[in-house]
Specification:
146 residues; mainly alpha; Butyryl-CoA Dehydrogenase, subunit A, domain 3; two-stranded antiparallel sheet; elongated
Length: 146
């Protein structure tokens, strides 16, 4: 299951990065009140925050992959990577949708597709709740909660 979680983490980061790239391009090109909407901190800050979360999730995925390649225990890192990347990818796609507004639903912008695809990784191959249970029990030494 660890390789699958690492793969899902990498996919989630990739989907989030794609959404972020599309939203950033749109924010540079979309002119409202004689200026690009990307000049506004209300558009810029959420996109910047998404970039930071995606990069942090990617680092955890790379750590998990490195441990797996070295045949070291990596259950906690794989689970954390899957969880963090799925959340970061989803947030990036959601922020892209909000940045594009109504255009986010237009198929030619691909945001609606990215949002649908990244949503899957929040629930599969294992839900975020089960990841938290694993971390609670195996990493923090808490009693089994399920």
């Amino acid at each position: 299951m660890n390789p699958e979680r690492i793969l899902v983490a990498a996919e989630s980061v990739g989907l989030g990065r794609n959404a972020l790239q599309r939203a950033s391009r749109y924010a540079k090109e979309r002119i409202v009140f004689d200026r690009p909407i990307g000049m506004n901190q209300g558009a810029q800050h959420p996109l910047a925050e998404c970039w930071m979360h995606l990069e942090a999730a990617n680092l955890m995925a790379m750590k998990a992959a490195t441990l797996y390649d070295q045949q070291q225990p990596c259950g906690a890192e794989s689970n954390a990577a899957k969880y963090l990347a799925a959340e970061a990818g989803y947030k990036a796609a959601e922020t892209a949708m909000l940045t594009l507004g109504g255009f986010g639903y237009a198929k030619e912008f691909h945001i609606e597709r990215l949002l649908r695809e990244v949503m899957l990784f929040r629930i599969a191959p294992v839900s975020g709740q089960l990841v938290k249970c694993f971390i609670g029990e195996k990493v923090l030494g808490l009693p089994k909660s399920y």
